[in-house]
Amino acid sequence: MSDDQHGHHVNYKKIYFILLALLVVSVAGPFVGVVWVTLVTAFGIAVVKANLVIQNFMHLKWEKRLMKWMLGTSLLLMALMLAGVSPDIMNHEGNNWDNLAAKAATERGIDGEHAETTVEGEPGEGVAEAEQGEFSAQTAYNGVCAACHGQSGAGDGPAGMALDPAPANFTDPEFWATRDEQRIVTVIRDGAVAVGGSPLMVPWRSTYSDEQIQALAEYVMTFRPAGQ
Amino acid sequence: MAFAKPQATLRSVTGIPTGRLAVWWVLASEVVIFGGLLGSYLMHRIGHPEWAAAAVHTNVWIGAFNTFVLLTSSFTAVLAHQAAEAGDGKKAARFLTLTIGGALTFLLVKSVEWTIEITHGYTITANMFWSFYYTAAGLHAMHVIAGAVIMGFVAVDAYRGRELQRVELIGIYWHFVDVIWIFLFPLLYIAK
């Protein structure tokens, strides 16, 4: 204890009871049922409570200015870092990019039934089970494949524009001259490298089951022009 | 003591006692650790409205009770500091023991809460919300454990009237752990 510590008469008991009263308000806030009231009573009060503790219990009020600068710098650097990454985290698309995984997660939502299915099965299996239960080749194609191959299968997806070689065009009769369903299955499962193609078409066997890959291949076959 | 005290503990170039400066320096780095984690959670939460479906499963009453426990333990910690300032090591040790009791209560409640959640299938791998939930609360709980252990050593010394300045130092750390929980509570429990 240094000399500058002597002589402040903080009424700790009073601060403590104010903190408890604020806690009651923050718990009661959501019962009003208005979103902005909840936000104010939750986060506004958290800031007030934290400030009371920091100033009166931690005695920052009486610390030298150096200490406040030190903490302020720390907060500022943190805010700078968060501000820097926030556009990537909070937006799911920009001018030149699409966060397909985040979009798919938002669309899928968090399955309310998932918790119950997990209790029965192995821990952690719930998500996979829920996904399998809802598997649709069209949804999977539009969510994953279409980024490069395009929703219409013409190889004109936004993420495929810059790729070399360009993504396969499933609507091109020439493409089907040398392909059959078995080959499509192989390429989806093991990647195009398995048939001597581009490594940009990555293997999907760890993401989809054999049945799902078969369904995807069948869906890709629907892009084949009539008469081929 | 077999060893002389390092010189750094005796001088104070800044006019702030070195021990206290060191504790604040630790906390300044903790601000970045917890701030980064909680800030990431907040940004993801805003970007993923569907997380609200998972957040409804956290128990606001358990969270509120633990907030009450930590606020109370902060109160006893500051009373310990007051006693140490008055030179009453025994009284300071008693208040520190109460604070450790608060830490143990907090951890006990937390373990019951987690047991209920995990057996209901809300594990750390269930989805991103629960990943953040366990990571943030878990990192905080580790700080509670560390604080309680260090407080035990400080209390034993204080009881014998030794190193009374450390009562304030562990107190500052403890209030910080309290402040983190003050933010975790609305983030994980109230904002549904």
Write structural notes for this entry.
- The complex is a heterodimer of chains A (228) and B (192).
- Chain A is mostly helical.
- Chain A folds into 3 domains: 9-88, no CATH class; 98-134, no CATH class; 136-228, Orthogonal Bundle (Cytochrome Bc1 Complex, Chain D, domain 2), CATH 1.10.760.10.
- Chain A contains 10 helices and no strands.
- Chain A has helices at residues 12-28, 35-57, 65-90, 100-108, 114-120, 125-133, 137-149, 173-177, 181-190, 210-221.
- Chain A is elongated.
- The N and C termini of chain A lie far apart (88 Å).
- Chain B has a single domain (16-190), classed as Four Helix Bundle (Hemerythrin (Met), subunit A), CATH 1.20.120.80.
- The longest helix of chain B is centred in the C-terminal third of the chain and has 32 residues, at 128-159.
- Chain B is elongated, with a radius of gyration of 19 Å.
- Chain B starts with 17 loop residues before the first helix and ends with a helix.
- The mean pLDDT of chain B is 91.
The low-confidence runs of chain A, each spanning 5 or more residues with pLDDT under 50, are 1-5, 112-132
Annotated CATH architecture of the largest domain in chain A: Orthogonal Bundle
What's the story with the biggest beta sheet of chain A? none
Oligomeric form: heterodimer
Reading off the top of the CATH hierarchy, the class of the largest domain in chain A is best stated as Mainly Alpha
Please report the number of helical segments of chain A.
10
Dominant shape of chain A: elongated
Q: Identify the biggest protein-protein contact and residues per side.
A: A-B, 66 and 69 residues
Q: Helix amount of chain A, in percent?
A: 55-70%
